[in-house]
Amino acid sequence: MAIDGGDGPVLPSREAVETNVYTPLSRPLFIYVSEAAAERPEVRQFIAFYLSSPQLVDEVGYVRLPERAYDLALGHFEGGDTGSRFVGRETVGVSIEALLELEAE
Asked: Rounded to an integer, what distance in angstroms lies between the CA atom of residue 48 and that of residue 53?
């Protein structure tokens, strides 16, 4: 389905998702880990694997996040940084890297 955000219709494509012009129908997928679970070694290993293996995203037909987004997310997790960067903010049309660079609320 083409989306017209005011500059003419945009068809879904990898490039349209990666350049953030196929919005609001494209969005990142997240996993959420409780602080208690994040202290378990097997959970920490899984999250490290999950965020260090973006090639797996291709295998299921999704579009990868930019490499920096994986690095930022892994850094937040390894640093014990919890909370959402999305609550109370307008996020449509904002790059995932810009959101991940914000402070958690």
From this structure: 9
CB burial class (10 A; 0-12, 13-18, 19+) of residue 23?
middle
Q: Does the predicted TM-score (pTM) go above 0.90?
A: no
Residue 80 belongs to what domain range? 29-101
Span between the terminal Cα atoms of the chain, in Å: 34
pLDDT tier at 39 (50, 70, 90 boundaries)? very high
Report the sign of the C-alpha dihedral through residues 16, 21, 22, 28, in that order.
positive
Cα–Cα distance between 49 and 45 in angstroms, integer? 6
- Which pLDDT score, from 0 to 100, does residue 40 have? 96
In a domain, 24, yes or no: no
Average the pLDDT over 26-49 and give the result: 89
